[in-house]
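Deliverable D5.2: sample structural annotation.
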Amino acid sequence: MKQLISCVFCLSLWMTSCPSIAQKIEDTRFIIHKVDLNTQTLKFYHQNDIGINFGNFKTLKQELLHKNQELVFAMNGGMYLKDGSPQGLYIEKGITRKQIDTTKEAYGNFYLQPNGIFYITNDHQGIVVKTTDFNSSPSIRYATQSGPMLVINGNLHPVFVKNSKNLHIRNGIGILPNGTLLFAMSKNPITLYDFAAFFKNRGCKNALYLDGFVSRVYLPKKKWKQEDGDFGIIIAETKTMN
């Protein structure tokens, strides 16, 4: 028995001293999905061909089926106004559908400075930056603005409080050191501090809060299918059906 306890203790110490190993362990607090833009297809969706908001994953999935596309993963992709339109910058297929919001002081998480932008380029790069660091370019294929930033150049957002009483279901996006996109949604209410720490501990230098409370994820491979809701932008991975 003493030998078994000793072995377990040594294993614990070894994993603590090897962050790269520990980070590979799935964090059961979250629904996690990784996307390599070089091998997986990720797009942003807001309205169908006749200008009606998709609103939720069920509607989008039905639309994709008509185009011989399977919905692999989906997550709500940013804050929105009462009519479901994006609150800030929104670019879809290279076209700017909503202009950037540069307001510095206003109510709500979106305006908790610094906020940020997640965008994808034509050469398959995913980037998260502070809104103030964003440079518009014809090379940007998709973009969504939200806030606040969770991780900024390797540091947690400075206003987050470790033991805050502000708890919500939350979802966000971070960029891993190898350029892979890391999407996550908490299964239960969580603080912004702990949510941001999750991305930082995974090695994300920059991560962006997408939303809370309304957060939804569709990920059948992990037996997670939330098809309800009525929100704005949807970020989704698809593949062609055989």
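Annotation notes: The two ends are 54 Å apart (CA to CA). The chain has one domain: 26-240.
The annotation will be released with the project's public dataset once the embargo ends.
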